[in-house]
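Chapter review: from sequence to fold.
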Amino acid sequence: MPVRHVLLAMAVAVMWGLNFIAIDASLQHFPPMFLVALRFALIAIPTLLLVKRPDVPLRWLIGYGLGFGTLQFLFLYWGMAAGMPTGLASLVLQASGPFTMLLGATFLRERVSGPQLIGILVAVGGLAVVGWQRAEHASVIPFLLTLAGALGWAIGNISNRQARAANPLHLTLWMSVVPPLPMLALALVWEGPSRIAVSLTDFSDPGALAAVLGLLYTVLIGTILGSGLWTWLMSRHPAGVVAPFSMLVPVTGMTAAWLILGETVTLPEALGGILVVGGVLLGSIRTRKPALPLPEPAPA
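The token string follows.
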């Protein structure tokens, strides 16, 4: 890739890494389930009005929206609201790579090469270390919720792969039409109308402005600009050249969480993180025979 394209890929990784900081800020004011509905509603409304629906089977469009949009962010936001550290959340979500390869091998009969299988095992080992540390020093529930979010992302990746959209950005935008209604229904039942109403009408708390700015960052920078640039790069270079830059996302996320939020990780968590990143990178190795590629990353 030309140097300017390398810099763009690195910029997108930074945008997506900082996205976790923005999510953390938004969760200080908005209930997590309602925040997911609000995030995607802000994208879905202009998409319905301005963007032509992609010519893909409806079942894969809905599957992508339910997996990537609904399940991933339901569990990610829930996990972070329940106490999952922001930096570790950006790391654990990378489990979507091994999950995608396993789902592809199970349901699509995609062949997984030897290096990919080793990569899966290494990444799972790293996740086990991080999960063990969470259980030792804090509740393991937020970790498991975030891991469930990674599985939702993987389900979305499989649906995205099966959709085979001619314009992936249009598919990403139209995916946002799926989450708002089910997430709003869940929010009304789980979080209650009064809590939702307060989050929309009372901005007197000190973190309210940061929460709104975080939401705008997530929508405009993390999703629209970041996804747009990433799709542009993927259309001009092989996926195997662009996709590894996504491994800078947890590096950025954990560094930003340390600098901005003062989060620290234990030595075993850091070692587990290295195993996760290394395992996902190893899983991206391609062979001459067709194998399941590293899933196209998407913003948090």
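Two observations follow directly from the output. The first helix runs from residue 3 to 27. The two ends are 25 Å apart (CA to CA).
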